[in-house]
Write a structure and sequence with these properties.
This protein has about 100 residues and is mostly helical. It is built from 1 helix and no strands. It is rod-shaped, with a radius of gyration of 43 Å.
Length: about 100
């Protein structure tokens, strides 16, 4: 009876061991599947980040161009106002008897 009892215990242990091995196989497959899904998701994210970088570079280029245009226009306007003021002052100083520029 001891031999029969030992065989039953060994068979039970073998069955439990087989269950553990099956569980490990299932976990291994799930880990592989998850890893593959993550790789695919990361590839998609990388593509989207690259697209965003291109858009940002495009916007940066447009803004830089626009800022340079505005700066040029403002510089031209400021120079024109300065020239007008200089001309007006010269004209005023030529007519000292009629007009006088008073400095504060």
């Amino acid at each position: 009876m001891k031999k029969d009892h030992l065989e039953i215990i060994l068979e039970d242990i073998r069955g439990k061991f087989d269950l553990v091995l099956e569980g490990h196989d299932v976990l291994r497959k799930e880990i592989r599947d998850t890893r593959q899904e993550l790789k695919e998701d990361i590839s998609v994210v990388n593509l989207k980040v690259e697209a965003l970088n291109q858009k940002i570079d495009s916007v940066d280029e447009k803004l830089t161009t626009k800022i340079n245009e505005v700066e040029t226009k403002l510089t031209d306007k400021i120079d024109a106002v300065a020239a007008d003021l200089t001309a007006h002052r010269r004209d005023t100083e030529v007519h000292k008897t009629m007009y006088q520029v008073k400095e504060p």
